[in-house]
Amino acid sequence: MSFVSDSWIITKRQLLQLTRVPEVLIFSTIQPVMFVLLFRYVFGGSIQTGQPGGYVQLLMPGIFVQTVAFTLAGTASGLAEDMKKGLIDRFRSLPIARSALVIGRTLGDALLNILVLFVMGLAGFVVGWRPSSGIAKISLAFLFLLFFGYALSWIGIYTGLAVRDARVVQNVSFLVTFPMTFLSNAFAPTTGMPRPLQYFAEWNPVSTMVAACRELFGLQNQFGATAGSFPSEHPLITSLFYMALIMVIFVPLSVRKYINTSK
Amino acid sequence: MGHMKSVTAENLVKTYDKGAVRALDGLSLDVEEGTVLGVLGPNGAGKTTTVRILATLLSPDSGSATVAGIDVIKHPDKVREVIGLSGQYAAVDETLTGWDNLVMFGQLYHLGKSAAVSRATELLERFSLTEAARRPIKTYSGGMRRRLDLAASLIVKPKVLFLDEPTTGLDPRGRQDMWGVIEELVKDGVTLLLTTQYLEEADQLADEIAVIDHGRVIARGSSDELKRQVGGERLEIVVEQAHVSATARIVETVSGSKVAIDEGLRRVSAPVTTGASALIEALRAFDAEGIHPLDIGLKRPSLDDVFLALTGHVAEEEKPAEPDVRGRKRGKK
Question: Which residues span the domain enclosing B154?
Answer without folding.
Answer: 5-228
